[in-house]
Structure formats: structure tokens, C-alpha cells
Write a structure and sequence with these properties.
heterodimer, A: 471 residues, alpha/beta, 15 helices, B: 209 residues, globular, binds iron/sulfur cluster
């Protein structure tokens, strides 16, 4: 009998076209998501070589990083920043020239690339999915092998629908038990990264397993898979189950009729076989996970909100100590400060990590009947036109607006601040995004990553707060 | 792509763990639609002071290292964003080889696509090379890809491991897309099998609602 295989092994085996030399394979890509930032040079390369897009029918484009989150009806013409407009114009020209389907800026279908893949039913179990963006792992929540690639690889996929890859190793990330009150999927992934480190998953694909993920909603699983890259993993996967199938059913690009039955039968073969081997494992107990926030300048520098800023003097390894010292200097935090004593000037609820409807509901539940603290600017940026629309149907926009939050149109916004939404004058931000790197949200901006309810709590108290004290 | 056979030059020490691609190339400059001339923004935040002048403390602003061809880095080099602008900017500056105890996967891949050789070596050896790199104008190293060796300033040779396919591509300056196109028959055959097994995926994005 064949030896038991993991979910990753099965998807990999199903996509190998041919060996390409020692330890390297040519693999097939089922779905290619493209956006305006990492594709202009790839299309330019195609043009120079006179190449075509091999599978426009397996490719879809959207502009998300550069677009303003106000005055959306104006389309690309409404983009004030000339360089941003140039990139969006280039994408719109390229998709037309190469026949690639595109969700226009003015459409409800537009949104952050990693939000709309699952939302539209494009991202499906068992697929290989790539995008010139490191948070492509988000789609792993669907049970798809999804990973980020560079621009040369984008060009390679556009031209050939394949990639040259070496297989990843398997890492099991198991969490069991129920999450405590006020603990969100974001806290689960921050706790995982804090435990294994930003390089803990290098060369590996995570399979998230255990009752915590089985009981988690699809959107929660997306939040977790989204940040797999922050632990260095190439991708993160959750085995497709009945929840996954129910989620895909009926979405615009999901298979229908007989094809649906055939697809579901295939998807059910994908979960890891009993006895499948993993190269590495990490185990956490959900009961130990508290709401988390980051205090430093990479996502592993996180702690429970009840904790304190660490003291570099306690760290032995000189490089690590220097890294923490540098982080605290940049963050302007003193060792041993209680995290709940750290004030914030700005709050960002959005990004491909936390801008789905469940995230907005969690944030609104805290915002309801409260006011954004004096001196705090708070933005809520839904992940897609459809998320925004649904939130408005549910009246969440009114809750946010009455509390003094700004209610914006969909896009990446302050996650990476390529549009006009950015922190000013080195402000300190409570952010639901995925990277707290230096300067990412604005010059000298000090980012504290946390879940959506925690960010709302920070907005109404004006400091990092334990959401459990407000619930 | 240009061929990579041997390289001799100054190595600059950059002992920053988890050096992310946002630090190598800040997001605000990702608006470019070009892949050349990007070194002006390389390491922007640490290379320049707020008034735009050079930060004299930063290694690549110091005389012998302005012409560095090697970077000696620390663990998890190039983590974070997939932006290929990071290796484009390094290449544009003149860096052709990065040595570190470990690399983030996407950055590691992106280097090969752009004629930069990333070399992972055990930490003890990188520590030695880091010491060598602190020798300023004397921090001259040579890498020979064919024999997979780095020669230290004192002439001692260090061996490194590398995947045979990647080595072959770099040595011969082969373009990946061209190589893959030679496998067109295999790709076509795969697509026929896939269309039988997973027909709903074909025509998908053009089908819409
Ligand atoms: S929301 Fe942030 S992390 Fe996600 S795709 Fe946009 S910029 Fe990248």
C-alpha cells in the first residue's frame, strides 16, 4: 500500500508536471491572482519577449494596494497620487491587452486580492494558487496550496502556467481546545508565531490541525493562514471539511451542477491520511492563549496583552539582544512597561488579515455605544465591496460612524500605506494588519498588531487595552 | 540573464537578524513600474537620515563598502514581503552575493532570478566571514560557483551547498521561462489530464457569474 500522505503531499503530487533536475520540479498552477504592484515588470517582460498569457481563464486581476479608500465612484481617475495612478493604469492596460479578467475599481467585486479569492469562490480546495504577494497563504484556509511569489515568477506563471519549485517540508501546527472569551483567531496565530519565531517555518508548509481549527469559522481560518508567512512558512493549510464545502457552495465562481458533485468528491479525498508523517511539529493549548499584541518590529515580538515590554538585559544572545534593543528604540518603549499603559494615536481595522464581515462585527460589538477616545484617529476599511455592502446592511457602518470611526471603501489602505492612508509624524497605531515592520504604515510609525476587537478597544480607550475588560 | 561564474569584491557586514524586505526596499517606492535604477531607495530608512543626507554609520556609506559586492548577513535574511524590488535594488547597487545562516524562502528564490547568489552557511562559518567583512578595504572575498567555494581574505576556502539545477541556471545565465517552454509538450499533456480530472477549473475566471 502507498505510504500515508499529508494534505500538502497530495496537492503537490497532483500538480507535478515533470522533474526539472535534482530535487526540483515543474508544477502546475491552477489559479493566478494578480494586482497592480508586482505585475508591471512581469507584463513588460512578456511584451519584450513577445509572449502571451497562457491561461487568462485561470488568472484574475484586481487593483487593491494603491487605490484611495474614498471617492471610489471616480474609478482610476479619482486617484490623486500620480505614481499610484500610473500603476493602476498600467494594470488596466495590461489586462486589456492580454485578455485577463479584471474586477474594476468601481465594482462591488473589487477588494483586497486575498479577500476576494475566497469570497468569489475562486479559491477552492486542492488548488495550487499563487500571487505576487506574500500573504497568498490566506487561501490555504480553503485547503489550497497557496503561496507568494516574486515578479519574475509572476511572469513565469503568466507565460507558462507553471513554476519551478522544490517540495516543501511538512510541519504540523496543532492547537486543541476552545478559545477563551475575547480570544480571536488573530491571537491564535500571534501566539503561534511568538512560540516558533519568524523563521520557525522556513522551508515548510504548515498544516493547522486540532479541534481549535476544526471549530473555527472559515474566516477565522483565513486570518490564521494569512500570517503563516510571518512565521517563515511557505504556506499554511487547513484540511477541507464540511464547513469548507458549505462555504464554497453557491459562490459566483464555484462549480455548479454535475461539476459541483465531481469537485466535492475530489475535495473529500484531500485531507491528510491517518499516520501521515510531518517533518516538524508544534503544539499549543488553546486555553493558554490570551489576547495578544506585538510590542516590537516583527510579528514574533508579541506578548499577551496582560504582559510587559521585555527587558533586553535579560536576553543572552547578543544578536537577539541587539534586535530587541533596536526594536524598543524604534518603538520608543521602555523595558518592563505594562502593555496596557501604552497610548495609541491611530487605529486601523482592515487588511487581508482582518477585514472580513466577522472581523467588522467583532470590532463593532466593542464600538457600539462608545466613542473613539480624544486624540485618536480610527479607520475601518472593509476588505471588499461586498463586505462593505453587507456591513452596511447589518448597520455596522452606523455603529462605527456614531462612535467616531471613519468608514472607508475597500483596499489595502494603511496595511502598507501605498495610498494616502498613513500614520503621520511617527504616530503609534493599533492595527489589525499583519506586519509591524519599521516604516510600513508611515515614516516612523509604531505599529502594534492585534485582533479587531482589541483594536476597537484601543480606539475607545486611547491605549492598548484588554478587550476582556470592555466586553 | 547574465552568467555567474566567479566574483571577487569587498564584503560588507550587515549583522541584522530578520532583516525584512521592507527594510531592504521600503513599500512607498514600490510604485515604480521599472526594475532598474532601484538602488537609490535601497535600505532607505537606515542608509539616509531624515533630512535626506547619508547616515555615516551605515556600512554601505563607508568608503570601502560603497563598492561592496558581497553582503554578510544574519539569520532569516530577506523575510517578509515577496517584493522582487529587494534583489533588484541590491543588484543595482552592485551586490551579487549574499551570505547568511538562513534566508526566507521567497527572497532566496528571487535572488537566483536576478543573478544574485544567496549562500546559506552554518552560523559559525558566517560569524567568521562577518569578522573578515569588518576588515574594510581588506575584506575582499572571491566566490567560485563551479567549485562551490568562497575564498576568505586570508585565502582559506569555504565550501557551500547549492541545488544543482539552480547552479546550472546561474552558471549558464539561463532564463527560466525559456527552459520551461522547452517542456511545452509535458505541460500540454498535463493540462489534458487535468481537464479530465478537474474540468470545473478550466475557463473558470472567464465564466463569472
Ligand atoms: S492588505 Fe496588506 S498584506 Fe494584505 S495584500 Fe494588501 S498590503 Fe498586502
Amino acid at each position: 500500500m502507498a505510504s500515508p500522505r499529508t494534505l500538502f503531499d497530495k496537492i503537490w503530487d497532483n500538480h507535478v508536471i515533470a522533474p526539472q533536475g535534482e530535487g526540483t520540479y515543474l508544477i502546475y498552477i491552477d489559479l493566478h491572482l494578480i494586482h497592480e504592484v508586482t505585475t508591471p515588470q512581469a507584463f513588460e517582460g512578456l511584451k519584450l519577449a513577445g509572449r502571451k498569457v497562457r491561461r487568462p481563464d485561470a488568472t484574475i486581476a484586481v487593483a487593491d494596494h494603491n487605490i484611495p479608500t474614498t471617492n471610489r465612484v471616480a474609478g482610476a481617475a479619482g486617484i490623486d497620487n500620480p505614481e499610484s495612478k500610473l500603476q493602476v493604469d498600467a494594470l488596466e492596460r495590461n489586462v486589456k491587452e492580454f485578455g485577463v479578467p479584471y474586477f474594476p475599481i468601481t465594482s462591488l467585486d473589487q477588494g483586497i486580492v486575498h479577500i476576494i479569492g475566497p469570497e468569489q469562490g475562486l479559491s477552492q480546495p486542492g488548488m495550487t494558487i499563487v500571487c505576487g504577494d506574500s500573504h497568498t497563504a490566506t487561501h490555504g484556509a480553503m485547503g489550497a496550496l497557496a503561496f507568494g511569489i516574486g515578479t519574475s515568477e509572476v511572469e513565469h506563471v503568466l507565460a507558462t502556467q507553471t513554476l519551478i519549485q522544490s517540495p516543501a517540508k511538512n510541519m504540523l501546527v496543532e492547537v486543541n481546545g476552545g478559545l477563551g472569551a475575547g480570544v480571536s483567531p488573530k491571537d491564535v496565530i500571534l501566539a503561534i508565531i511568538a512560540k516558533i519565531g519568524t523563521a520557525g517555518g522556513t522551508g515548510h508548509v504548515f498544516e493547522y490541525a486540532g479541534s481549535t481549527f476544526r471549530d473555527m469559522s472559515m474566516e477565522g481560518r483565513m486570518t490564521v493562514c494569512n500570517m503563516s508567512i510571518e512565521a517563515g512558512a511557505r504556506a499554511g493549510l487547513v484540511a477541507p471539511d464540511e464547513k469548507t464545502i458549505a462555504y464554497v457552495m453557491g459562490r459566483p465562481y464555484a462549480p455548479k451542477g454535475a461539476a459541483w458533485e465531481q469537485a466535492v468528491a475530489y475535495w473529500r479525498t484531500l485531507p491528510s491520511d491517518p499516520g501521515a508523517k510531518y517533518d516538524k511539529e508544534a503544539h499549543l493549548d488553546a486555553a493558554d492563549i490570551a489576547p495578544h499584541v506585538t510590542w516590537g518590529t516583527n510579528p514574533e515580538q508579541a506578548a499577551p496583552v496582560t504582559g510587559r515590554v521585555p527587558d533586553p538585559a535579560q536576553i543572552e544572545d547578543p544578536l537577539r539582544r541587539a534586535a530587541v534593543e533596536r526594536a524598543l528604540q524604534y518603538m520608543q518603549l521602555k523595558p518592563n512597561t505594562l502593555l496596557t499603559e501604552v497610548p495609541v494615536q491611530r487605529v486601523f481595522i482592515g487588511s487581508c488579515t482582518n477585514s472580513r464581515i466577522e472581523d467588522l462585527r467583532a470590532a463593532a460589538a466593542i464600538a457600539r455605544g462608545r466613542k473613539v477616545a480624544e486624540g485618536v484617529t480610527a479607520l475601518v476599511v472593509p476588505g471588499s465591496g461586498h463586505v462593505k455592502h453587507q456591513a452596511e446592511e447589518e448597520g455596522l457602518d452606523r455603529i462605527f460612524l456614531e462612535a467616531g470611526f471613519q468608514w472607508r471603501d475597500a483596499g489595502c489602505s494603511m496595511c502598507m500605506s501605498m495610498n494616502d492612508d498613513k500614520a503621520l509624524n511617527g504616530e503609534r497605531i493599533a492595527s489589525t494588519s499583519n506586519r509591524n515592520f519599521e516604516g510600513r504604515q508611515g515614516k516612523n510609525a509604531k505599529t502594534h498588531l492585534m485582533g479587531p476587537a482589541m483594536a476597537a478597544a484601543a480606539a475607545v480607550t486611547g491605549r492598548i487595552s484588554d478587550v476582556r475588560d470592555l466586553a | 540573464m547574465e552568467k555567474f561564474t566567479t566574483l571577487t569584491g569587498v564584503a560588507a557586514p550587515l549583522p541584522i537578524v530578520n532583516l525584512d524586505t521592507d527594510k531592504i526596499f521600503p513599500a512607498i517606492y514600490l510604485k515604480t513600474i521599472k526594475r532598474t535604477g532601484l538602488s537609490q531607495w535601497l535600505f532607505q530608512e537606515i542608509r539616509f537620515r531624515p533630512d535626506g543626507s547619508e547616515n555615516p554609520d551605515f556600512v554601505l556609506n563607508q568608503a570601502p563598502y560603497r563598492k561592496a559586492k558581497f553582503l554578510i548577513g544574519a539569520e532569516n535574511f530577506g523575510c517578509g514581503s515577496s517584493r522582487e524590488h529587494a534583489p533588484w535594488a541590491l543588484h543595482d547597487f552592485g551586490i551579487r552575493c549574499v551570505v547568511a545562516p538562513s534566508f526566507a524562502d521567497i527572497f532566496y528564490n528571487n535572488c537566483f532570478k536576478n543573478g544574485i547568489l544567496p549562500i546559506a552557511l552554518p552560523k559559525e562559518i558566517v560569524d567568521m566571514l562577518m569578522e573578515d567583512a569588518r576588515k574594510g578595504a581588506n575584506a575582499v572575498m572571491t566566490v567560485d560557483l563551479e567549485s562551490q567555494t568562497i575564498s576568505r581574505p586570508d585565502g582559506e576556502k569555504v565550501h557551500f551547498e547549492l541545488d544543482a539545477f539552480r547552479k546550472h541556471c546561474l552558471l549558464n545565465g539561463l532564463d527560466d521561462i525559456g527552459l520551461t517552454e522547452q517542456k511545452a509538450a509535458d505541460i500540454g499533456a498535463y493540462e489534458q489530464r487535468a481537464q479530465l480530472a478537474r474540468p470545473w477549473q478550466f475557463g473558470m475566471t472567464q465564466r463569472g457569474v
